[in-house]
Amino acid sequence: MEHLELFFKAIFIDNMVFATFLGMCSYLAVSKKVSTAVGLGAAVIFVMAITVPLNWLLDTYILKDGALAWLGPEYAAYDLSFLSFIMFIATIATMVQLVEIIVEKFSPALYNSLGIFLPLIAVNCAILGGSLFMQSREIQSLGLAFNYGVSSGIGWFLAILAIAAIREKIRYSNIPAPLRGLGITFIITGLMAIGFMSFGGMLTGGDEEEATEQTVQVEVTKEAIDLANNEKEIIE
Amino acid sequence: MGLLSKKDVKLITDPLADNNPITIQVLGICSALAITAELKASIVMSIAVLFVLGVGNVVISLMRNIIPSKIRIIVQLIVVATLVIIVDLVLKAFAYELSKTLSVFVGLIITNCIIMGRFEAFALANGPWRSFLDGIGNSLGYAVILIIVGFFRELLGSGSLLGIKVLGDPIEKTGVYAFGYENNGFMLLAPMALITVGIIIWVQRSRNEALIEDN
Hints:
The structure holds 2 protein chains of 2 kinds. By secondary structure, chain A is mostly helical. Chain A has 10 helices and no strands. Chain A has helices spanning 2-13, 24-29, 34-63, 84-106, 108-114, 118-122, 125-136, 142-170, 182-197, 208-235. In chain A, helix 3 crosses helix 4 and helix 4 (84-106) crosses helix 7 (125-136). Helix content of chain B is 62%, strand content 0%. Chain B has helices at 6-13, 29-34, 39-63, 72-94, 96-102, 104-107, 113-123, 128-158, 190-207. Chain B starts with 5 loop residues before the first helix and ends in an 8-residue tail after the last helix.
């Protein structure tokens, strides 16, 4: 149940692109064609599934306040959390390089489809963001961390797939010249983000802390609905 | 302008408008959108990026002849990560509340594409002084957009600027609120940041036709 909740929350409610704007650079740059978008999306899921659990292990056993206690009582007072940025990014950069080498060796077909995207991924903020959110939301176990990595990756994949499909179609529309390309993509992403806010009410119930968070989101959604209705009235 | 040649001045002024990192080069969007609900956060973020990009560009430029090209991305990431840790600790020490608002986005300066993009495109091929100017110019270009977006979102969303209620008090109905004006709370939510940047791009490109894209 806990897993299912985290899964849907990471995909729809806290979607990497629409709720926190992570990985926007590659999201805008690589979304001109559906096929390349799928390649990059798959690579992101893959890399996040590896780096988030790894960084969870690093955080829990090395970086956290008192995490070094397993070395002996004299180490219990150390708090290395200020090192987490450098540790996380080093893990990500090395893992990306390692994955690239392994995939190239064992699956040339996969390498041909994912290969060119892998170097891009080391500097994709969604990957580092996933690890930093994993740290700040205090995810409890390795299993949950893996789940969080995969589901945030899927959320990002969905977002880039959707925008790529829209951009392929929109090429045939008559858009005001200055808005063409980047401008309209921004505005469409904004509208999609408004749409994704309606998923806020999806998870009801759960414990009390969850419930309060939910009501905030539900209020936000109501506001969005009211606004949409107002707009409708104006149009009518 | 004895210190700066014409070319150097261009390095600083170009990114402010016609080669803006956000609206033209499409770099560093994430943080530009996420933290601009308040003007103050935008300004602090801009200063942080100014520091990291200025110093980082100089460091990378000094090391450009000794970095093996295969591992240059890792080296660049380590340099940025070190600078960002400094920024993060300074923020935590002197502006704790603000560092809570910025939360993970300070850490995300590491993967801010502006920084990696300028390292790759400029600092690896140019001397330290020019790299420094390029870093300053690009982070100012970034700052301009952040401050415009932050200004409009805070003004229209909560009727204040830098926390000062410039439009009067919404509860006691003073200032413009006396005439029935209401704050648009929607401006504070995430999607409106995207739409605001979209509009900035629209305005900029209608003023300069050369920037218009094909499709």
